[in-house]
C-alpha cells in the first residue's frame, strides 16, 4: 500500500503500524514527534496504530535548546 511519509510516497505492507514504519526506516522511536493525518500519535500508541492506504505521516525531530 502507498503512504506519504515526510512528503514522499512509499510502499508498505498492509497491516503495518507506526512502529513498523519507524523501525523499517531506521528512525528512532524516542525523542521524535509522529503526526498521522495531522494528528499527534503518542509514543505508547506506535505499536497499535495501524496505517492505511493514503495515510500521511510526518516524523519530526524537535530542536531543543537556546
The gist of it:
Helices cover 11% and strands 30% of the residues.
In terms of topology, how is this protein built?
Blueprint: E1 2-5, E2 8-11, H1 18-24, E3 33-36, E4 39-41, E5 56-60
Parallel strand pairs: 1-5
Antiparallel strand pairs: 1-2, 3-4, 3-5
Q: Could you list the spans in which at least 5 consecutive residues all have pLDDT below 50?
A: none
How many separate helices? 1
Helix content range:
10-25%
Strand segment tally = 5
Order of helices and strands: EEHEEE
Indicate the CATH class. Alpha Beta
Largest sheet: 5 strands, mixed
**What coarse outline follows from CA principal-axis ratios?**
globular
Amino acid at each position: 500500500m502507498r503512504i506519504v511519509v515526510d512528503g514522499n510516497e512509499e510502499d508498505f505492507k498492509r497491516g503495518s503500524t507506526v512502529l513498523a514504519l519507524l523501525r523499517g526506516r531506521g528512525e528512532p522511536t524516542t525523542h521524535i514527534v509522529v503526526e498521522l493525518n495531522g494528528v499527534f500519535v503518542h509514543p505508547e500508541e506506535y505499536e497499535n496504530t495501524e496505517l492505511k492506504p493514503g495515510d500521511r505521516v510526518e516524523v519530526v525531530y524537535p530542536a531543543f535548546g537556546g
